[in-house]
Write a structure and sequence with these properties.
The complex is a heterodimer of chains A (237) and B (305). Chain A has 237 residues and is α/β, with parallel strands linked by helices. Chain A contains nine helices and ten strands. Chain B is globular, with a radius of gyration of 20 Å. Classes of the chains: A alpha/beta (237), B mainly beta (305).
Chain lengths: 237, 305
């Protein structure tokens, strides 16, 4: 279980600090939570706070009751938090197998490494030896990013727009990936998404708008209000 | 061979014992063994130190090893090795130099390698440099390579220097005839107070000739690197050079590209990128549970792999 208590995140701007996350209180139980909300609402920032990539300017984050607010990225990872980036990182010379192996945290046979790739619908033989560099397509990188989180198998997994760039045909498989993961880890799975079909599998939906939680609840409670928000910029009306 | 020399041989040639095929082993400036085959002859030069390696036309799937080992402190040598490769060959040449210096005087090996590659021949040339030993004496290597590629000849040169060489000045000069291709891949890592200067000069004289010069390097601590790539396009030809360097600590890296087109159909490109390890790469690996130092090591290893 992951708890955010009065978490705020500000960045310095010219005149005054800009508040990207505003005093959020959120408890993530085991199961699927989907965070949605407008672009720039603060979703990725929240994910980075959970993964320890950035630190809250105030408030605290607890994992199973333990305060992890001031721990570094490595410690977050070792305590069991995984994060699939919205924009996967490219490397020079590091192969897909290298990354999957590092994610698993132990040496893997090629067969074992391939298994993780097959789960995300990549024909393993074609990919296992490839460099994770600019030659991979956006969708391929996204899938490898997801495969790394599967290989880690930690109790908290955060996916930042996992469906982005994934073709429609594979979409159903992606949902199966999450289902399997829930069975296996029995942990907390947090998915940031704008996709209706991902919202459909959520145990709980959290709407993050302008750094604040605008709503939280089951699909039936949240769904009707999702698409009736006021217009983004009144000047356009 | 003693144990130190055995380690050096393993490092520069991946060999445990005397290799198969043709070879010439040079240990502390002395002949350490030689093997020839029906197609490959090795002859000691009469006028200066060094050897001629003569490969008969039509020799295919054969290899030559010419490792040089130095384990005696203060030894300085200059060696000339000439490779005369006939037409229609397909051969691999593995050169390498390992220096162990446990003393306080500089040990230095300078090798001048000249390649005459015959028409339509294919040569893979692998060169590995390695230094070790905890003496205060410097380990110095200054390899020069002169390459002459005849029509439709193809040569691939892989040079690797990852550890232990204090100072190196590499010069490679090549001249290409019609349809000839030269591929150069350099991998370099410097640390401590090491310096490494490499220069590649390629004359694309032949119609349809082409070259690709690729350097990947990592400079750490207080080390210094200079990379010069000079390509002259004198005919319908294509040339590409690329320097990609990771800079760390207080190191310095200089890349000097020079491309000159002397013909309207010469297509030449140079790319150079020098920068520290990308922060997002470190962050990604740390989210997999690696410490910052472990992440850095992975990124550097991958880059030079
Ligand atoms: N380091 C920073 N400095 C300044 N502004 C930042 C910084 N990081 C994020 N922001 C801003 O904070 C807001 C929230 O960004 P965030 O990436 O969390 O949004 P998001 O909800 O993930 O959006 P999207 O749906 O487009 O991915 C944006 O307006 C963004 O420009
Ligand atoms: Mg985002």
């Amino acid at each position: 279980m992951l708890e955010l208590r009065n978490v705020s995140y500000q960045v310095p701007e010219e005149n005054k600090d800009k508040e990207i996350i505003k005093n959020i209180n959120l408890t993530l139980e085991d199961g699927f939570t989907v965070i949605t909300g407008p672009n720039g609402g603060g979703k990725s920032t929240l994910a980075k706070l959970i993964a320890g990539i950035i630190k809250p300017t105030s408030g605290s984050i607890l994992l199973d009751g333990k305060d992890i607010t001031n721990m570094d990225i490595t410690e977050h990872a070792k305590l069991g938090i995984s994060y699939a980036f919205q924009q996967p990182v490219r490397f020079k010379g590091i192969t897909v197998k290298d990354l999957i192996t590092l994610a698993a945290g132990k040496s893997l046979t090629t067969g074992e490494a391939c298994h993780y790739l097959s789960e995300v619908g990549l024909c393993a033989r074609d990919y296992i030896g490839r460099e994770v560099n600019a030659s991979l397509s956006g969708g391929e990188l996204k899938r490898i990013e997801i495969a790394m989180v599967i290989a880690r198998g930690t109790k908290v997994s955060v996916f930042d727009e996992p469906e982005a760039g994934i073709d429609l045909w594979s979409f159903q498989n992606l949902i199966q990936v999450f289902d399997k993961m829930r069975e296996r880890t029995k942990g907390t799975i947090l998915i940031i998404s704008h996709q209706e079909r991902i919202l459909n599998i959520a145990d709980r939906i959290v709407v993050l708008t302008d750094g604040e939680i605008a709503g939280s609840g089951s699909k039936d409670e949240i769904y009707p209000g999702l698409f009736t928000g006021e217009s983004v910029c009144s000047a356009l009306v | 061979m003693d144990n130190i020399q055995r380690t050096l041989l393993e490092q520069v040639a991946g060999l445990h014992e005397v290799p198969e095929g043709a070879y010439n082993l040079r240990i502390n400036g002395q002949a350490g063994g030689r093997g020839t085959t029906a197609n490959i002859d090795i002859v000691t030069k009469g006028d200066k130190p060094g050897i001629d390696i003569i490969i008969k036309p039509g020799t295919v799937k054969e290899s030559v090893h010419i490792p040089v080992l130095l384990s005696q402190t203060g030894l300085k040598e200059l060696v000339y090795n000439d490779f005369i490769i006939g037409e229609n060959c397909d051969v691999t040449i593995i050169a390498g130099c390992g220096i162990h210096n446990a003393g306080d005087q500089a040990s230095e090996h300078s090798g001048i390698h000249t390649f005459h590659v015959g028409k339509n021949s294919k040569v893979r040339y692998v060169e590995k440099h390695y230094g070790q030993g905890d003496g205060s004496g410097e380990r110095i290597m200054n390899p020069s390579t002169v390459i002459d590629l005849a029509e439709d000849a193809y040569m691939e040169m892989d040079t690797v220097q990852i550890k232990g060489v204090d100072s190196t000045r590499r010069s490679t000069k090549a001249v290409l005839a019609d349809g000839a291709t030269l591929l150069i891949k350099e991998k370099l890592m410097t640390h401590g107070k090491q310096t490494a200067e490499t220069s590649f000069e390629v004359e694309l004289n032949g119609k349809g000739s082409g070259t690709n010069v690729i350097s990947r390097s990592v400079a750490r601590d207080d080390s210094k690197q200079v990379f010069l790539a000079k390509i002259n396009g004198n005919n319908l030809c294509s040339g590409h050079s690329e320097c990609d360097a990771i800079i760390m600590d207080r190191a310095s890296v200089q890349a000097i590209p020079e491309i000159t087109a002397n013909h309207v159909d010469a297509a030449l490109i140079h790319e150079a990128a020098i920068g520290k390890i990308a922060g997002e790469q470190l962050v990604k690996l740390m989210t997999l549970g690696l410490t910052e130092a472990e992440a850095e090591a992975q990124i550097v290893d991958g880059f030079l792999k």
